[in-house]
Amino acid sequence: MLQIKRPDGLPGRIVRELLVYSGQFALFYLIMGFSRAGGGFLLETMSMALIGALGIQAALLGAYGHNPAIRLTASFITPAVYSLMTSATGPGFALDAVFAAFWAFSVVTAVFVTVAISAKSRLAASLFDFLASVAGAASFAALYFYYVTADTIDGMIRSGLGGSIDAAVELAIPGIVEWVPVFTSHPGNLFVIFSALLLMLASALARQETLRTTYRIQDLFGRYADVKSRDEVIAGATARPNRTELCALVIGIRGFTDILAANEPQLVIDMLNAWFDRLSELMRRHGGIVDAFTGDRVTVLFGLRPGKRQRKASTIVSPCEKAVSVLIELQDSLPALRKELRQRDLPDPKEFDAGLHFGATIVGIVGCDRRREFTALGGAVNIAVQLGHACATLKSPCVVSEAAYSRLEPSTQHRFKALARIRIQGSDTPLKAYGFDSTGGV
C-alpha cells in the first residue's frame, strides 16, 4: 500500500482536508452563501451545523484519513448533516441541485482519495490525487452556476417577469439544466468559471510537483535512514534520540584486504555493489534497517520497527530470529552470487564473516549542519563488530553472542554450537559465543 499522506503535523493535514480534499464543497457553499446574504447567513442553524460538522470531519480525516475505511466513512459527515437539515423542507429536498452535487462531490472525492492512499504504484496515487483536485474545481463551478441561476430566478420573480416560475422546481434536478444556456450567455460568468478552473488546475499541478519532489526525497533519504526517522526529518522535525534494545548484525567479506590488493578499483567497486544489493534485498525482506556501510562491511539493525506476527502463529518474530534468517539465506545464496560475479569477471568472495549481538544502544540522527545520518551508538554494535572479527579465528562464518542466542527459537538454536569464549574490548568478562554448526543443517 502506497500512502500519499505527507509527514507533516495534524494542523497541516486538517487544513489540507478543508482546502483540498473533503471540505471544499462545504467551504464553497458557506462562502457563496455569505457573499449573497451577508454575515447573518453564517449564524443560521444550517450554516452553524455545517461549520461544526466540517470541523469534526476535517479533524477526523486529518488524524486518521490515511486509513481507507475511516476515509470512506468520515468523508460523509458533512453531507449527512446537510441532508438532515434540508430534509425538514419536505420530500423534494433530495431533488435539489445542491443536495445532488454535495453528495456527488463527497462520493467521488472519497473514492479518489481512498484509491490514492491505497494504490500500490506512485503513478496511480498521483493520478487519483490529481482527480480529487479536479473534483474540487468542478464543485466550485457547480455551486457558482447554482447561485447565479438562483439570483437570476429571484430577480425575475421580484420584477414580475417570472410569471408562474417555481424557484424550487427550477433549481432542482433536472430543471436547473435548462438554465445552462442562460448562464453561459453572459461572458462574465464564463470568465469567472474558466479563471477559477485555471487557478485550481495550476494548484493541482503544483501539488503534483510537490508530490514528485517528496517521493524523490523519500527515495534518496530512505536509503540512509529508518522510514519513521526519515519522515520526521522531511517534515522539518528532529528525529528524537532513543535508547532501546535491538539486535545488531555486522557482515563483511572474509579476505577483503587481499581482494582489494589484487584487483582493479572498478572491479572491486562493482563487486561490492553487487554484494550490498544482495544483502539489502535480504535485509528489507526481514525488516532490517541498514545503519552503515563501512568498506566491505554493512551494519544492520533489527528491532527498530514493530515486530510482525507470523502468518500461522500468534507469536511475534524476534529481531534475532530475523537476523539469523538473513544469515541462513545469505549462506544458501552465496554460491549463486559467486557464480554471477564470476560470469561478470568480478572478484569472487568465497566466505563472509558475521557478528550478531542483542543489547542496549542509542539511535538517532547525528552529524554536522551540512551532513547528518541515522545511526546506532553503543555496545550492541561494538560487540557485533568484534564478534565478526573473531569469525576467521573461530572458523565459523557467523559468531553469535549468548544474548542473541538465548532469544532464538529452539528450532533455530540447533543450528549453532558453542564456541570458545571471546574477550571483548572494554569488558573483563569473556563473552560466551555460538557459531554455525555444519551438522545442524546450515
Short description:
The protein is α+β, with helices and mostly antiparallel strands and 442 residues long.
Radius of gyration, in Å, reads: 32 Å
Estimate nothing, just give the exact number of structural domains.
Answer: 2
Helix and strand content put the structural class at: alpha+beta
Count of discrete alpha- or pi-helical segments spanning 4 or more residues:
18
- How does the overall form come out from the CA principal axes? elongated
- What is the makeup of the main sheet? 8 strands, mixed
Q: Roughly what is the average pLDDT, rounded to an integer?
A: 84
Low-confidence stretches: 1-7, 306-314
Beta-strand share of residues = 5-15%
Pattern of helices and strands: HHHHHHHHHHHEHHEEHEEHHEHHEE
N/C terminus separation: 35 Å
Task: Count all strands and give the number.
Answer: 8
Helix content bin: 55-70%
Topology summary:
Blueprint (H helix, E strand, L loop, with lengths): L9 H10 L4 H14 L7 H20 L3 H7 L2 H10 L10 H22 L3 H38 L7 H4 L9 H5 L2 H35 L5 H8 L7 E12 L2 H7 L2 H21 L3 E6 L2 E6 L16 H25 L8 E16 L4 E6 L1 H11 L1 H4 L3 E4 H4 L4 H4 L2 E3 L14 E4 L6
Parallel strand pairs: 4-6
Antiparallel strand pairs: 1-3, 1-4, 2-3, 4-5, 6-8, 7-8
Helix pairs in contact: 1-3, 2-7, 3-5, 4-6, 6-7, 7-10, 13-14
